[in-house]
Specification:
The protein is mostly helical. The protein has 6 helices and 2 strands. Helix 1 packs across helix 5.
């Protein structure tokens, strides 16, 4: 069941081709949701002192106990290596992350989240959760679980073959 929305309100029509909640282009709807939630996540990150959500994603992946190279982190997060390098540099300058020399190959450095990085990550994720909960206010727990499950299935479909 969709909320009671006045589809004749011009502000609710992003363009003439997208005006029906039952037949709107799915990619456009997912894009709009992504922009909205990313904007809220970015604002939550800025509120605790990080630049944007990519900082939290890098800190989370670098701190999950799996020693990854920068290239592996970039692949995991879908970031290009230049962008990731700039994020890691910024986080390292603020002592949220360190590059640890790989004992089996001295040329390889593996980013690792520091204690300060875990602290700010926890604060950023708590702020994110609060922002997302506000965005999803009015949805039931089952609605949110279904949304998460469906999005996960779409996101991982190509990886599963």
């Amino acid at each position: 069941m969709l909320p009671d929305v006045d589809l004749d309100t011009p502000a609710l029509k992003p363009c003439a081709a997208i005006d029906d909640p039952f037949s709107s282009d799915l990619t456009w709807l997912v894009h709009r949701v992504e922009r909205s939630l990313t904007g809220e996540f970015d604002a939550a990150c800025r509120a605790v002192g990080l630049k944007d959500m990519r900082d939290t994603l890098v800190l989370a992946v670098a701190g999950d106990g799996v020693a990854r190279t920068q290239i592996e982190i970039a692949q995991t997060l879908g970031l290009d290596k230049t962008t990731l390098g700039a994020i890691i540099d910024r986080l390292e300058e603020r002592s949220f992350l360190v590059r640890v020399v790989d004992p089996s190959n001295k040329r390889v450095r593996r980013p690792r989240t520091t204690d300060a990085g875990y602290e700010i990550l926890d604060r950023a994720l708590a702020a994110r959760d609060e922002a997302v909960n506000q965005s999803l206010q009015g949805f039931t727990t089952d609605d949110i679980a279904s949304l998460r499950t469906l999005l996960w299935r779409v996101a991982t479909r190509s990886a599963e073959g």
